[in-house]
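[Q] Does anyone have a clean structure-token version of this?
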Amino acid sequence: MKRLERELGKALERVEPPAGFAERVMARAAAAERTKERMAWTWLGLFQAPALRWAATIALCVVLVAGGIFVRREQVRRERGERAKEQLMLALRITGSKLQIAQASVREISDEN
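[A] Here you go.
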């Protein structure tokens, strides 16, 4: 156990950083921040050009119109399906009542015989 404790103590003992370490870390952090700001301005700058603004507006309008058309088609399809379901239910009710009438007629005929 002593050996493990010695190795652990050696691995965890404080070591001074090399000279200039803090300055290098701060310089990298500043460079990363500048790059981040530059990229943000680049994306914002794209929409400063009137042509790109118009293109983005037109693209958005096309997407909205296409979405509206898709939604309307889906509504029409659903309404047609509901109408077909109602017609089927009516046909089944009529068929059921006609079958009851036929069954009653067959019972009358069998009762007479």
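[Q] Thanks! Anything notable?
[A] The chain has one domain: 2-112.
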